[in-house]
Amino acid sequence: MNAHDDDAALSQVAGAIAEPARTKMLCALMDGHARTSTEMAVIAGVSPSTASAHLARLKDDGLLTLHTQGRHRYYSLAGPHVAQAIEGLMVISRNSRQAFVSTTPNRLQFARTCYDHMAGTLAVQLHDHFIAAGWLVGDGTYQLTVTGETAMIELGIDIATLRAQRRRFACACLDWSMRRPHLAGALGAAFLQSALRRKWVTQDLDSRALGVTVKGCRALANRFEIQTHKQ
Hints:
Layout: H1 3-18, H2 20-28, E1 35-36, H3 37-44, H4 48-60, E2 64-69, E3 72-77, H5 80-93, H6 106-110, E4 112-114, E5 117-119, H7 121-132, E6 136-138, E7 142-144, H8 146-154, H9 159-164, E8 171-174, E9 181-184, H10 185-197, E10 201-203, E11 210-212, H11 214-224
Antiparallel strand pairs: 1-3, 2-3, 4-5, 6-7, 8-9, 10-11
Helix pairs in contact: 2-3, 3-4
């Protein structure tokens, strides 16, 4: 693919994202759940036929994946790389020339999903702790230290399996509400699943919000030196 083809492909994808109804659909799928075209029509505020056309465009441009289960058809983001790109665009869309004041609702700002990993204030604090504790090293693309690997294994995370996955192991994802990085990649996704299994956090069924449990508050304070309160 030459430079002209790269430019044309980028323009094609940018055009797919730019339409307001399609943007709403993509943002709604940032929680990692799959949804039907009927649900997406309601979310985008368009007719079912219009929603189907938008979803077809997003699928053809590689932003969505279609899942068929019996008579039901579900759509999800094509992968974490799409979620990370959308998160980055959310940052750019804010006016960086003004002093940054987040307008994100408090509960979403504190903890939410970013496709399959954790985002928000809590995720940024965890990312900072992992760096400060010497568990992660690197600049945007991370490696686990021996201490970090031991700590993650203690959380029930299978590091060998994560390293065998065909995706980035651990990387920074710029948080759009905090404008600072949180942990993404296979390790970020595994950490969120560990927190859910241990009932440190709970996930809303109808939004990206994560709630911190009483058990989670204790664990965050004792393991990661993060003081919080039950959400």
